[in-house]
Amino acid sequence: xxxxxxxxxxxxxxxxxxxxxxxxxxxxxxxxxxxxxxxxxxxxxxxxxxxxxxxxxxxxxxxxxxxxxxxxxxxxxxxxxxxxxxxxxxxxxxxxxxxxxxxxxxxxxxxxxxxxxxxxxxxxxxxxxxxxxxxxxxxxxxxxxxxxxxxxxxxxxxxxxxxxxxxxxxxxxxxxxxxxxxxxxxxxxxxxxxxxxxxxxxxxxxxxxxxxxxxxxxxxxxxxxxxxxxxxxxxxxxxxxxxxxxxxxxxxxxxxxxxxxxxxxxxxxxxxxxxxxxxxxxxxxxxxxxxxxxxxxxxxxxxxxxxxxxxxxxxxxxxxxxxxxxxxxxxxxxxxxxxxxxxxxxxxxxxxxxxxxxxxxxxxxxxxxxxxxxxxxxxxxxxxxxxxxxxxxxxxxxxxxxxxxxxxxxxxxxxxxxxxxxxxxxxxxxxxxxxxxxxxxxxxxxxxxxxxxxxxxxxxx
Length: 461
Hints:
3 domains, 21% helix
């Protein structure tokens, strides 16, 4: 994990700061200092609390697009029969403290790439135009129009081709009915002279006749280079476009770049190390699921005695470090969970939520994570770290035993899993279950401690 260090000099509320990115100036008191400098947002984490210093935007200040009005809702909501487990619309999830941060991320994500629109697309057009203007089609005659005279065998039993015009002459080959040969000479009244391969021979006129065939002219289209300078234009064009696209790529990087730097004192570094350690415990759980839907059922006999049916999917991806945008620059590792409908990024001070290209964020003081143990009838195979607490039958009778009417009735294990419900007053509502008991306890407790610290400080970004 990388950490940035800065030196500062000053007196009273005024201070000059020196760092690798240049000189910046700040004013304020301890714990509440605004920074004016060349880079992005700085978050100061120390044993005394959390403070923020943000770059003050000048002429490049982004337009403040309106944030949809939110009527806070408390989740979960009890539904008698069916219960969909899903967070509210992404536009509603952001708390008041994170709106500026989310506005910047959303604006960066919504920008179109200059590389694609001004670089790659024109390059494709250039190559197409150069191709169509540099080559032309030319028609050539590959076989001229001609007539040929053939000797065709008419005898139903075939014929011999002899070495000389004599019935006693040696036979060179045998010809079948309908077979044709090139006519070499027809002056002899009894014999037709034919040619085949590198030889000539004679066929009796009684066994063959003369056939005339007409061959049409065969034409072919060929491409030819119409522009002798096409190769030079291609090389010069590619060099120009490569240079242009590289410059656009750097421009895109500056346009899309979001910087979020964390500065921690030594004591807080040791505390924050627990953040990654606790998430590592979660990631080592053999199975992690996301609940999508729950539904009560009265047909417990056909569902192993269960009164509640749960639709779940495995968490798609989990990583100890994942950035939310391509050009997102930070000096810390960001734990990441990819759910079926949301992506969760756990920053040191808040949860960042992403759906498509839209973001939301909630400080940990506004995030609630409740945990409990749940008994789950497991039909998909027991994970290696799961604890089996009992068994049931696929089809049960009133007493809980096997229903003898079903031949394929089998025992199903009952596992004790840890269930975690993430909620916020802005509408976050996700349920995550781990096969390993307590896999998320440490991580959830650490987030709760950070949230408690934020509440005590009355933090306002």
